[in-house]
Amino acid sequence: MCCESKRRFLLLYATQKGQAKAIAEEIWQQAGAHGLEADMHCMSEMDKFNLETEKDPVVIVISTTGTGDPPDTARKFVKKIQDKTLPPDHFAHLQYGLLGLGDSEYMFFCNGGRTVDRRLQELGAQHFYDTGLADDCVGLELVVDPWIDGLWLALQEALQLQEEKEGMNNSVDAVSSSLSTAPHAVHELKLSSEVQNLKLEDERARGSDVLSQNLDDINLVAPDTEPSLVRSVPPVSQSALNIPALPPEYIEVEFQDTQGENPHLSSLVSEGTTFEVPVTKAVQLTREDAIKTALLLELDIADTAFEYQPGDAFCVICPNNDSEVEELLHILGLSEKGDDFVCVKVKQGTKKKGASRPQHIPERSTLKFILTWCLEIRAVPKKAFLRALVECTSDVGEKRRLQELCSRQGASDYTHFVRDSNVCLLDLLHAFPSCKPSLSLLIEHLPKLQARSYSVSSSDLYQPGRLCFVFNVVEFPAGPSRPVSRKGVCTGWLAELVAPLLHPSKNTLDTKGESSSTEKISIFPRPNNAFHLPADPSVPFIMVGPGTGISPFIGFLQHRQKLREQHTDWEFGETWLFFGCRHQDRDYLFKQLRYFLENGTLTHLKVCFSRDSSTAEVAPPKYVQDILRLCAKEVARVLLKERGYFYVCGDKKHMADDVSDAVVDILSMEMEADKLEAMKILATLREAKRYLQDVWS
Q1: pLDDT-above-70 percentage for the chain
Q2: Does a structural domain hold residue 154?
């Protein structure tokens, strides 16, 4: 009878890296406690749901990828609803609520969710619950948690209204009873990325465990002690906690005596064809005393079908650090079993809906292969993972602290000591030594090890059969939450891989004489649909790329030089490059830019050095945005009068936004218009794909 009374809603998710799926699963788990049943599907499973005939409310959780695109799993769905022949009342029968995930560090925040939301509205669908836009930059949970809290009342109301319309008055009493226990939440929540000061009330404990512990059993620290990853202070240390429901176990791992071969790396990639290519050259572009180490690598793609244009990106399939894998095996008590084959399958009788082996985990491989190539062991643990780790922890104090970190009351501590500190599983296991998770738990909660994306720094026209790219070796210093310093997963691995190849001469773009190498890496293309040279070579363009942000512009200039040599009768527009770094003598990555200037490929080169001291009466500009302002008239002329292009590549947080602000100031000043009007013009340039960014955070 209980099962019969549960009312259905359709739950759709579209995910790129697993976050939207995890949130959808949380909604699915909580639904039962509210007398509801979530019919959950990935948006890619279009044969399992039909919005054209859907009568029940629909809940959508969707992330954003790339430069504002819907995730790969939503592409077919988005293409279908964007059919221009659909009438404006196509979805007039549909009621839905949408939760979008994004990162405000990037230009098109939550654009995947916004795109679907806007189109459903255009086709007549109605909101039964306001759209939520969660920002990974400040913490998804700031919007996700209260959005889910308010969802249940909105769903109950939508279902009640639906039943009344259908004349199902016999269920009104049950609905009223259910509503009386729902959280006191305002229906029309204005949730967006601006929500930063949400008060997470203790009484909002729907779908979570309320933890009341005898605090006398735990050694509480003095109130004046500073909190840390392993230590809390009042009020958190003295609070009853609202913690997430324990995620159901669903993976089983069996060790096997048989031997065999591990899967090929290409089987781990769903994005397309992979290519195993040799590294033919490695050059350190920075001096040894530079703050960052920048390397240029050259790959031989001559014997492959790999194609690219200047401005494109590509992905490198990289492994986790060997020593970290060995350390993890040791903590798990599996040091002797790293080379043993394991079979990964779904646990019989699991309560997880639609449980299946994660696609990035092979059915059969060695344990070390899974930890090295499949799981992102450096990932910041989600709260659901912390909740699961609680059950693997024997020390009562450590158990309590993990409960705090995944609780509502410990949200600030989680953000500060886990999320913002970039803590990973190994850091947690060192901090909480009595925590002994199973291998199956790691497979359930650690996300897929993602391939790393890099901008191409060459032109196939200029260097046939070669692909170059530039990167800084990322460094993560030791800190209170991280006992040891670490290098970036991919950049650290690449630096170690090419160490024997590094050429003694520095700052060399076209090094004569190449070292032979047998080292190979696996790559696959990631074409950029917009960040390319203007189709018309007579159109002028401006490039802004400090540090390694200059990488794609080397390819631009190489390509332009070859075009000039091959087509002497063509008209070529002027080219501007704004480059900056810390020190002229330590990290001026490509001094050969002068070569492009001398042969006319590059018309104007503007450089600045932010950390070099100057004795000049008027201090030289420190940053690229400062030089842009000095060239305001020329920048405005290229963009407005000559309809030129503007390219920005590099760090989003500390550069791209400042460059954008500088361009707004320039447009405002040169057009004698107010700032709002200048911002509208810049938005128009973006829309026309004449102001283009390739940025990272």
Answers
A1: 88
A2: yes
Which tops the pLDDT comparison, 505 or 83?
83
Residue 686, Cβ density class (10 Å: 0-12 exposed, 13-18 middle, ≥19 buried): middle
Say whether pLDDT at 475 is over 90.
yes
Could you tell me which residues come within 8 angstroms of residue 628 by beta carbon, excluding any fewer than 6 positions away? 544, 578, 635, 659, 662, 663, 666
Range of the domain at 129: 7-164
Q: How confident is the model at residue 108 (pLDDT cuts 50, 70, 90)?
A: confident
Choosing from 164, 185, 211, the residue where a domain stops is: 164
Q: How far apart are the first and last CA of the chain?
A: 52
CB 548 within 8 A of CB 471: yes
We report the CATH number of the domain holding residue 140 as 3.40.50.360
pLDDT digits (tens, 9 = 90+) for 15-33: 988 889 889 988 988 888 8
Q: Return d(Cα 602, Cα 23) in angstroms, integer.
A: 49
Residue for token pair 């955070």:
697
Sequence-distant (≥ 6) Cβ neighbours of residue 73 within 8 angstroms: 14, 15, 16, 42, 43, 44
| Cross-sheet strand order for the sheet of 645-651 | 604-609, 575-581, 541-544, 645-651, 691-696
Distances (CA, A) of 51 to 10, 100, 115, 227: 9, 19, 17, 49
CA neighbor of 545 nearest in space, from 692, 646, 648, 452 = 648
Q: What are 339-351's pLDDT values in tens digits?
A: 999 999 999 999 8
